[in-house]
Design brief:
By secondary structure, this protein is mostly helical. It has a single domain (3-58, 113-337), classed as ABC transporter involved in vitamin B12 uptake, BtuC, CATH 1.10.3470. The protein is 74% helix and 2% strand. It has a two-stranded antiparallel sheet. The chain is globular and about 70 Å long. The N and C termini lie far apart (51 Å).
Length: 345
């Protein structure tokens, strides 16, 4: 290995690490607010990329149908709750969001061809389809079990992952797809040549990280999420609804996953189940941060990306094994440093 090869591998590692950092942010956010180890995070990566592929090909994305079905199920669940509690004030807005919004999207996609639209409009429409699935998944799968143990929520996450992978196969098929790059061309810095898409990935990842930092530090909603993460009982006593915090956190997780999928779709072929492996690497980074510290998780994500890149050069057949083995010493070190905490605590 010479310096040029090392620089190329480092570029690939940093690019992949930027995506893993975003997914680690989503996983830390979901766990801090809801105590859910959100295994299906990777599915939103695949859903976002493949929905954009369908829009660019002029096809009706099957995720619109999933959005309509999920919205209908959420509406039924909310109507049952309203009937039991006799609280009808929020029913019209709930029906507009869960029923009217998916139907409006379906009508737009049926009547207006998206194939010739600018990529920015296609990306925005794909996000409009995928992101609302996040809070819907939370409402259907996790909110009824919000007070369950972490182990029970983990089992539910595995079940949701299996269901979403199966739905992905049904909706998108088994063929892989790519999207055109956001920008063509390359940039040369000394002896290093970087593709424009890699710079898009790194730049957009940094912008999202800064935006979320501002959200958590400067806005009421961000402070509410931080309050729930620090002290769930105290936040409830202060009037912060846990259900809203859960839905908002899953909304942000779906946004991060969909954007990540669209960023990597021009670089690698995306299949219906590709997101699971990518999400697991983000999970390794989140574990390095203890599922609590995002700065440490971000550094862990860069470490995972670099180890993966250099492992692909030295031992490509074992690069996944090497990456996932990294979690063992981290868990061992944390288990030795952390005292046992009962679940009720």
């Amino acid at each position: 290995m010479n310096l040029d090869i090392a620089l190329l591998l480092a570029q690939d590692g940093i690019t992949n690490g930027a995506i893993y950092a975003l997914l680690a942010l989503a996983l830390v956010l979901a766990f801090s607010v809801t105590r859910v180890i959100f295994i299906p995070q990777g599915e939103f990566v695949a859903y976002g990329a493949l929905t954009l592929v369908a829009l660019q090909a002029g096809r009706l994305p099957g995720t619109v149908i999933l959005l309509m079905i999920a919205g209908g199920l959420v509406a039924c669940a909310e109507l049952m709750t309203a009937t039991r509690t006799r609280r009808w004030r929020s029913v019209p807005s709930m029906l507009a969001w869960n029923v009217g919004y998916p139907l409006a999207l379906f009508a737009v996609l049926k009547l207006v061809p998206m194939q010739g639209w600018p990529m920015a409009a296609q990306v925005a429409l794909a996000l409009a389809i995928i992101v609302p699935l996040g809070p819907m998944v939370y409402r259907l799968a996790y909110q009824p079990l919000a007070e369950a143990s972490v182990l029970m929520l983990l089992i539910v996450s595995v079940a949701v992952h299996v269901v979403m992978v199966g739905l992905g196969l049904l909706v998108f098929g088994a063929e892989g797809s790519r999207t055109p790059a956001f920008s063509d061309g390359t940039f040369t810095i000394g002896t290093l040549t970087a593709s424009a898409q890699s710079l898009w990935v790194i730049g957009c990842s940094l912008m999202l990280i800064v935006a979320f930092s501002v959200l958590f530090d400067r806005t009421v909603y961000g402070k509410a999420l931080r309050a729930i993460a620090i002290n769930r009982l105290g936040a409830r006593l202060m009037g912060i609804p846990a259900e809203f915090a859960g839905k908002l956190s899953f909304f942000l997780c779906a946004l991060i996953g969909a954007v990540s999928g669209m960023l990597i779709a021009p670089i690698t072929t995306i299949y219906y189940d590709t997101g699971f492996l990518i999400g697991l690497k983000g999970f390794v980074a989140a574990i390095i941060g203890g599922l609590a510290s995002y700065p440490i998780a971000a550094l862990g994500a860069l470490l995972v990306g670099l180890i993966e890149a250099f492992s692909s050069f030295w031992a490509s057949a074992y690069k996944e094994v090497i990456v996932f083995t990294l979690i063992i010493p981290v868990l061992l070190w944390r288990s030795l440093r952390t005292h046992h905490v009962e679940d009720d605590e």
